[in-house]
Amino acid sequence: MSPRSRLSAEARRRQIVDSAIEVIAHEGFGAATFARIARRAGLSSTGLISYHFADKAALMREVVARVFGKAFDHIRPRMDAQASPSAVLHEFIVASVEFYAAHPHDIVALSAVRGNLRQPDGRLEFGPEIHEPELVQLQQFMRDAQRAGEMTRFDTRVAAVSLRAALDGAAREVSRPDHTDPARYGQELARLFAAATGQKAEPP
Prior knowledge:
By secondary structure, the protein is mainly α.
């Protein structure tokens, strides 16, 4: 039995999605055909992709889910290890920027899919609402920090949306080949956020 045939269905899907990410990152969203993805994955036929994904849109949705999942697995444990709401938010910023720098192909592919994948009526498949669950949780952490006296009073929705926009900018900045030092970028962004929210002391 060949190594190719021994792959489980889950492993095969992961192989296809990872290959799609690489094609998009290197060649662009428009180049991400089943034929090119199959070549990148070393598959003998595009039928092996069609077996797992009905069409390109289904595969692209899985690309987005994969990148979000990888980011969650990197960032969330770091947040959970913190003892205060302000420290959680500090670690969220720093760990997010570190993830962007460590996974530039994922970030490029995610951005390309979000900017190009459309529904049948022409609307983008992934609009701003994709971040809504994250924004809701960020607001809750901010409110907890306010109640604990770790932050001043401010509109948590404005702050959460602004932080998300700043992190989107960080993703573009540190995923470039000639990016600035991601550790420094993350710390500087966390410091700016701390100053904007009136934190008395910077979390360790």
